[in-house]
User: What shape does this take?
Amino acid sequence: MAASIGTWSFGLAAVEAASRTLETGKDVVSAVEEGINIVETDESVTSVGLSGLPNSSGEVELDAAIMDGYSLRFGAVAAMKRIDRPISVARKVLEESPHSLIVGEGATQFALQHGFTLQPDRSEAKPSSEESHCHDTMSLIVMDKKGNLAVGVSTSGAANKHPGRVGDSPLPGSGLYVDNKVGAAAATGDGDDIMKFCCSFQIVQYLKQGLDVQSACDKIIDDIAERIGAENMFEVAVIAMDTKGRYGAAGTVKSFTDDKSSIQYPGFPYAVWHQETEPLPKILVQPPKDLLPKDTRIT
Ligand code: GLY
Assistant: This one.
């Protein structure tokens, strides 16, 4: 049963595009790529693609990754400048490179060698203090009717970051993970913290151990809170899908305002489509998880 889930309200356009791609008979990796391309090229989205927020030198550096649940092939780019549609470059790494992750100037060179064109340098002023906490990743999971799964992520990373900083998104197991035999997961939020917990791999392991998809998402958030203390929790949200296309989401996001519509969501908005249960793609909102005030930090 075909299905898709994507992070944030801007993920609705990605989920819609992915479902259309599947209808044309293309595979799940293409559906992830084409879904994310829609958001990467939407200039109203300020945390993905070349219209993302710049680093502390005023330059936009992009991270993206894509993984195929059938073959476990993985491709990613990080800290890549001046190239549009980074998820498409990540796909080229997956399909046409012996490597898995290419960064910085090497990523830009790789893109140019594979037919991408250098975009104008859009060096900008530093983001405002309101924008500077922004690190909202477009994360997208797609399943086709045969049960093949793929996942992709794309982000400009933390606003005002140090040049060369890379977050969780392009790291396999942290920002994304998928295995056709088990399920898929992806993360968004503060990547400097998320990467310490390998959230996406851990969720897929919980699915493998028999947890249902919502419980697996809830458990990783509880695990983190238990380890560092609820009072130290950072912004994180996860999405996941099992081999039946059932989905789940959890996180600490208290509210989110959509840049385009100005709608304020009371929690973490995410977009879903499921051929049987949600035939029309729609946005759901996951309230922030209640965290147990149990502090097991090692002092
Ligand atoms: N999760 C995106 C980042 O922090 O880079």
